Amino acid sequence: MPFSIIRNDITRVHADAIVNSGNIEPEIGGGADLAIYRAAGAEQLLAARKKIGRILPGEASATRGFDLPARYVIHTVAPLWEGGGSGEEETLRRCYESCLKIAKKKRLGSIAFPLLASGTLGFPKDKALSAALSAIQQFLMSSEMMVWLVVFDRTSFRLSENLSHDIASFIDDRYVEDRETEEYQSPRRNEAFHSQAASRREQRIREWEHAAMHSAESMPLHPAGSVPSPAAAPVFAAKDAAPLAKAAKKRSIDDVLGELGETFQEKLMRMIKERGYDNKEVYKRANLDRKVFSKIKGNPLYTPKKSTAIALAIALRLNMDEARDLLGRAGYAFSPGSKADLIVEYFIENGVYDVYTIDTALFDHDLPMLSNY
Questions:
Q1: Is residue 213 helix, strand or coil?
Q2: pLDDT per residue over 118-149, tens digit each?
Q3: From edge to edge, which strands make up the β-sheet containing 146-151?
Q4: Which of 70, 79, 118, 120 could share a disulfide with 91, CB 3.0–4.6 Å?
């Protein structure tokens, strides 16, 4: 999980670096800025900050973390919101980019950001969140680092009103729809997919039983897995009929295992190849650690966590039927009683294949995120 949103006091986060949004001039402000100075030791952190001098909006520079759990404090200056016509969003995005560039140059393994500019600077919280996610996601597509977005409380974090409303409406509608049927998947949603394999097996057993009980001549067996037509059904002597009828009703474990399809790993790797993706592209889009993906790739029988399977379905940009199939191969299903699953379904059905955005929606609803692997 290279990126995750956590609820915490940033002064208590054990990261290689934490980010502080302060003033252009080296002076202590209020809010989170004041809290960071106090936790680090105000005099020593301020003395280090004075050595840097002025920091312009969008720029960043680093000092030691002193008494903080973090080794470094990366200082940046976020812009004041002035209505959106003065390039504020671009400047805010540059704050994240500047901090991440410093962290990479210092070869840090982790960095923790507050949601910059979302407090006294007056930035709309949804726009502040969008700038953060965009910059962090682009950075992590080409770099290896753990990045946390630290939110102190729910009041400092907000999705856009339109997205929040659409998700709420989708959940309400789906709950109503699910009450209309006792089964999880209604007949109009993928019935053929779930019943096809069972129907073929039942048909095969019925035809073989019929042939064994009512035929007197024998014919060659059909290839494994094919369904013989009634006209070409294999015929056996009457003395063989009872044992064969009994065998048709009770299959051995080898028979059952012989009907297994692709495993989760086999299906995943085949779909990556068929869709023209490369492995790195997929695990990055899934917000997966490279080591986790390597374990999956190296073991055809690997069973991922449900959140991992969903994240990979998102990264592959699967539709709902394809996503259900992939999850089913790992032994999971989308549950109509799970609000988290319904939120994921909302994004898939609307063609939004962004794990970061999905995680923010889950976090906003106080639900476990996909990044909680």
A1: helix
A2: 888 989 989 999 999 999 999 999 999 999 99
A3: 3-7, 146-151, 110-114, 17-21, 72-76, 60-64
A4: 79
275-299 core/surface letters (b: 16 or more CB in 10 A; e: else):
eeeebeebbbbbbbbeebbeebeee
Nearest to 294 by CA among 285, 306, 307, 282: 282
CA angle 174, 180, 183 (to 5 degrees): 90
Residue 239 CB partners (closer than 8 Å, separation 6+): none
- Return the CA Rg of the chain: 29
CA dist., res. 140 & res. 278, Å (int) = 16
Does residue 372 sit in helix, strand or coil?
A: coil
- What type of residue sits at position 247? A
Three-class secondary structure of residue 63 per DSSP: strand
Return the exposure string of 73-101: e unless at least 16 CB atoms fall within 10 Å of the residue's CB, then b: bbbbbbbebeeeeeebbebbbbbbbbbbe
> Catalytic site residue 364?
no
Instruction: Identify the active-site residue in 33, 325, 359, 364.
Output: 33
Its pTM stands at 0.76
pLDDT tens digits, residue range 232-269?
334 434 444 444 334 445 556 665 555 568 999 999 99
* CATH number given to 261-364: 1.10.260
CA–CA distance, 171 with 183 (Å, rounded to integer): 17
Q: Where are the domains of the chain?
A: 3-158, 192-258, 261-364
Q: Which residues partner with 92 through β-bridges?
A: none
Class of domain 3-158: alpha beta
Same CATH topology for 3-158 and 261-364?
A: no
Residues 21, 25, 28, 31, CA torsion sign? negative
